[in-house]
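thought: fold this chain, then report.
action: predict
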Amino acid sequence: MVTEMAATLLEPCALPNFVETPFVRRIVERSLAYIAAGFPVHFRGNSGTGKTTLAFHLASKLGRPVVLIHGDDQFSTSDLVGSENGYRSRKVIDNFIHSVLKTEEDMDRKWVDNRLTVACKYGFTMVYDEFTRSRPEANNVLLSVLQEKMLDMPTGRDSDGYVSVHPQFNAIFTSNPEEYAGVYRSQDALRDRMVTLDLDHFDMETEVAITISKTGLDLQDAEKIVLIVRSLRESGVCEFAPTCRGCIMIGKTLKLLGGKADAADPDFRQLCADILASESSRLGNNAQSAKVREVVSRLIDQYC
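observation:
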């Protein structure tokens, strides 16, 4: 059965370019302590704060195969637990006596376990990414899994009405804040069963280390880019605060063009203006974009 489910499993391993500064290490150590105590961990934060990457890194520390689920508005309970999918046909032909032919045929619905059931049965780590994008009623099945360590099964399954959760089963959740588009408010009962860690933007040291790791820039250029992004974030002119992704976008493109983080480089100025205006605007308002570009230009002159 485990072999059959290989396509749905991920082997956890530390990412080769994962940055683990003291800031990140403290989050990981706290999370491991909560999981060791038997509580699921929930990383909640804005887009670009590293929730999913951190969830996979945490899963790699647990050393168990990973089942990944992405929240979806179309999810139902069967998408987590399983359902009857297809048929199993059986036909018996008895011709022991050559003059007598006896046949027997029957057909049954075939039950297929889905990812939550597999994780519970075999003690895998479940990473439920953006779980609040699924409708709350689809996630109700998790209540008994996280509290009573029991998975209630539909009546169509040819076995007991429940599955005992394996002692090595662990769950890691991620979500965006409730004001994000396409996000449902989760049940209080479900949130009460997990430890929520609110993730914010990284500290300066971590953002510089991530930018270097993801782009290959030198320390000096990476620091300049991070300073520009962080200062823009704190300026108060943005509809949406730019994240470390902005640093990575600027750094990767700059590296590709063979440029430097220099105020005299027109390509660098244009990159920063385009990417940060894009990152910090939700509505695409021209006046708002012009404000951001003006602030970015001043910050480039200040730090480069």
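thought: worth noting. The chain is about 40% helix and 20% strand.
final: tokens above.
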